[in-house]
Amino acid sequence: MKDLSFDAVVIGGGAAGMAAALVLDSSGFSCAILEREDHLGGILMQCIHNGFGLHEFKEELTGPEFAGRFIEKTLKTKIAVYLNTTVTSIKPDASYSEGKGAGVYKELFCVSPDQGVLHIHARAVILAMGCRERNRGNVRIPGSRPAGVYTAGLAQRLVNIEGYIPGKEVVIIGSGDIGLIMARRMSWVGCKVKAVVEIMPYPAGLTRNIVQCLQDFNIPLYLSSQTTNIYGNDRVEGVEVTPMENGVTLPEKKFRIDCDTVLLSVGLVPENELSKDAGVELNGTTNGPLVDSSLMTNVDGVFACGNVLHVHDLVDWVAEESRRAGSFAAEWLRGERPLSQIRVKAGSNVRYVNPGKFNPRRDNNIYMRSMIVKNDAVLELRLDNRVIKSVKERHVQPSEMINITLGPKDLEGVNAGPDSVLEFSIN
Ligand SMILES: Cc1cc2nc3c(=O)[nH]c(=O)nc-3n(C[C@H](O)[C@H](O)[C@H](O)COP(=O)(O)OP(=O)(O)OC[C@H]3O[C@@H](n4cnc5c(N)ncnc54)[C@H](O)[C@@H]3O)c2cc1C
User: Fold this and answer.
1) Is 175 helix (H, G, I), strand (E, B) or coil?
2) For ligand 1, atom 3, which residue shows the shortest CA distance?
3) Strands 374-383 and 386-396
4) How many CA atoms lie within 13 A of 415 on its CB side?
5) Residue 225 DSSP label
6) Is the whole-model pTM more than 0.70?
7) Which residue ranges have their beta carbon within 6 Å of ligand 1?
8) Do residues 285 and 302 lie in contact, with contact meaning Cβ atoms separated by under 8 Å?
9) Is the CB of residue 341 less than 8 Å from the CB of residue 292?
10) Are 209 and 198 in contact (CB under 8 A)?
11) Is 9 exposed, middle or buried (0-12, 13-18, 19+ CB in 10 A)?
């Protein structure tokens, strides 16, 4: 077993992991990226469509191009990159049970076909493991179990990386971004995409994807419609769709769409098995770690960023957030700690707010998601029930993250104590 030691290790070599590692490296700390795939870049490498980097690079890139810019920078630094390396556990470091390193060092075990078992000691750990797709088992669609049912991300990998086309006539269940992108991709490779079926009354994906991936290809989108059966024995033969009204299915209106392939785009779940094992507390709404104003989890020195923290709509925000995680981890390594923090809470019509704490002494970037679709909405911030700020939002919808910067200026003339709560609501 190989023993290694770093100031910080980053788990995951996607956009989040690389962005965080680059900051740690430029702050003078020794740092390693541990990545289970045989390449850096994460999910971006299978997203060959454009639409990435408009905020980060002020130009429109494909996923691999966006990743390529980070990979190029990463490989020019002293960051140690371990590919084909899966982290299997993070624990308080048993070699430092007493003395200066006690409670500071963590030990990680990783497996790699090239290196065998790696035993790594690190003071700070950044969780950047991304997320995974929900599958048929997670959404309980009735019917038989024929071949031809894929998650949209798996189909994307088959088409874009492996060079296989998984079917000819396709129905997509769920209108998440991956499903929308795949509706267009499957059309381009010669398949007939017959419909996208969405249980909610509004699409789950970005508006630009509805326009560019469905409307431009005349692909029908059935909103408020539940998939109530998948037909077929050996291979998928069709799906049954039942329209809904006010959340109730209308069986008399059900209809069948013949197809040989079903793609599921029914949501993403942050990949936190490893985090849970390390004692990291999770947020029941996002399924990501609960973090304070410095993106640190309840485990001292363990930080989280990117899709493992909460599922982001754009990689640009992943990069922005992860740079901050890297910089907060560097501060922590230098022994700096936030002097005071105010608890942050989701109020009416807000699904979640991240991070869960606010540092009143510096600017804080706060991300949230709306629970409603509304034009001319108002985002209201209340500190201990007193409105301290109102921000006009031209349009809000659950699929698009809202981002706001809040700093000491916003608290001028307000008395905030240790029990204060900052609540975000949308009206
Ligand atoms: C189909 C699709 C379309 C998208 N379209 C757009 C778009 O048009 N514009 C846009 O801005 N954004 C888009 N996004 C979103 C964007 O790609 C992601 O938000 C971003 O790339 C996530 O980065 P990440 O580093 O958090 O996660 P990932 O890229 O998933 O990276 C996580 C990495 O962690 C590794 N890992 C996990 N567990 C372990 C472990 N135990 N040990 C070692 N390594 C581990 C994984 O192998 C992976 O490489 C899209 C995403 C998808 C899936």
Assistant:
1) coil
2) 178
3) antiparallel
4) 0
5) E
6) yes
7) 11-17, 34-37, 42-44, 47, 51-52, 63, 86-87, 128-130, 153, 156, 177-178, 181, 271, 274, 306-307, 312, 314-316, 318
8) no
9) yes
10) no
11) buried
Residue from 315, 317, 320 whose mutation best tests the ligand 1 pocket (most atoms within 8 A of CB): 315
CA distance 399 to 203: 8
Cα 354 from Cα 349, distance rounded (Å): 15
- Block means of pLDDT (10 residues each) for the chain, 427 residues, are 95 98 98 97 95 94 98 98 97 72 83 94 97 85 89 96 96 94 96 96 89 96 96 96 94 97 94 95 96 96 98 96 98 92 96 96 95 95 92 92 93 85 96
Q: Whose CA is nearest to atom 45 of ligand 1?
A: 12
Atom of ligand 1 nearest to the CA of 46: 1
Token pair for residue 27? 């702050």
Answer yes or no: are the C-beta atoms of 330 and 348 closer than 8 Å. Answer: no
Q: What are phi and psi of 391, to 5 degrees?
A: -125, 130
Residue with tokens 């371990």: 82
- Please list, in sequence order, all residues whose beta carbon lies within 8 angstroms of the beta carbon of residue 335, skipping any fewer than 6 positions away: none
Distance CA 11, CA 33 (A): 6
Assigned token pair, 319: 């990069």
Contacts of 104 (CB under 8 A, 6+ apart): 96, 123, 300, 301
Q: Which helix H or strand E contains 405, and what residues bound it?
A: strand 401-406
pLDDT, residue 141, reads 84
Residue 273 burial (C-beta neighbours within 10 Å; 0-12, 13-18, 19+): exposed
Whether the CB-CB separation of 349 and 340 falls below 8 Å is answered with no
Encoded amino acid at 173, one letter: I
Q: Which positions ≥6 away from 62 have C-beta within 8 Å?
A: 47, 48, 49, 50, 52
